Amino acid sequence: MEKLINEEIAGQIKELFAELNQPVEVLFFSKTQGCETCTEIEQLIGEVVELSDMVGVQVFDVESDGEIAASYHVTEAPTLVIAAKEGDQLVDYGVRFLGAPAGHEFTSLIHDLLMVSKRQSDLSDDARSFLAGLDQPVLLQVFVTPTCPYCPQAVLLAHKMAMESDLVQAEMVEATEFRELADTFNVRGVPQTTINAGAGTVVGAVPEQSLVENIQKSLGR
Q1: Any bridge partners for residue 57, and if so which?
Q2: Is beta strand 138-144 parallel, antiparallel or unpaired with respect to 55-61?
Q3: Per-residue model confidence as pLDDT tens digits over 150-205
Q4: Out of 36, 107, 126, 148, which residue is the most buried by the measure of CB atoms under 10 Å away?
Q5: Residues 94, 81: contact at Cβ < 8 Å?
Q6: What is the pLDDT of residue 86?
Q7: pLDDT given at position 132
Q8: Longest C-alpha distance within the chain, in Å?
Q9: Beta strands 192-195 and 168-174: pairing type?
């Protein structure tokens, strides 16, 4: 089978993975019918895992492994959950990919593995203070396409917020794979970050403080 990650890119990833300092586990929720990209995603994650002993993978079927999927609030396939591994336990920070992390979003995947391994978001003190004060759940859905060069910036910011707060779940959503969901939130350009199922919408890759302000508005603050 032909490799999806060529030798040059694999070498670059290995260099980055030298910074991994704590184990990370990728949970891949697939399904046997109606998932055009599942086989490719499973191969891609398998090739990434081969590049470091600090990264592992577990593969589940969103239907036959329904209880496990529900425990991670996963309802769609393909979905990737990037979790921390603490001994025999997995810690879910709410970092998600719905659809293939392809094109520019492959960068997001690699950066997320590094972030979760380091167990720190690198957000500003102001953003961390705001997130520490949350008292209700926040769902950030960042709609992207693989060819969008600005999308990883929006995805990584949302994932950093999920990393920082147990009340935040952040999903990269590949708009062409999840067309119905994209249509539900009237996605016409990417990146688009939808907050709490339409309570707020941010179009474009915005600075950290701008996303914080939009979350505040969505929560009625």
Answers
A1: 26
A2: unpaired
A3: 999 999 999 999 999 999 999 999 999 999 999 999 999 999 999 999 999 999 99
A4: 148
A5: no
A6: 96
A7: 97
A8: 53
A9: unpaired
The encoded tokens of residue 214 equal: 């939009």
pLDDT at 155: 98
Cα 9 to Cα 42, 55, 102: the distances in Å are 18, 17, 14
Structure tokens that stand for 23 in this block:
């184990």
Q: Which residues pair with 207 in a beta bridge?
A: none
Nearest to 26 by CA among 51, 11, 46, 3: 46
Tokens of 172: 């990269």
Please choose, from the candidates 84, 94, 91, 159, the residue with its C-alpha nearest in 3D space to the C-alpha of residue 121.
159
Q: Which of 164, 176, 167 is closest to 105 using CA atoms? A: 176
Residues 176 and 37: their CA atoms lie apart, in Å, by 12
Nearest to residue 118, comparing CAs of 207, 18, 50, 209? 18
Average pLDDT by consecutive 10-residue portion of the chain (221 residues)? 94 97 98 94 98 98 97 97 97 98 97 98 97 97 97 98 98 97 97 98 97 96 72
Per-residue buried b or exposed e for 6-43, using 16+ beta carbons within 10 Å of the residue's own CB: eeeeeeebeeebeebeebbbbbbbbbeeebebbeebee
Dihedral sign for Cα atoms in the order 66, 90, 163, 82: negative
Pairing of strands 89-98, 55-61: unpaired
DSSP 14: H
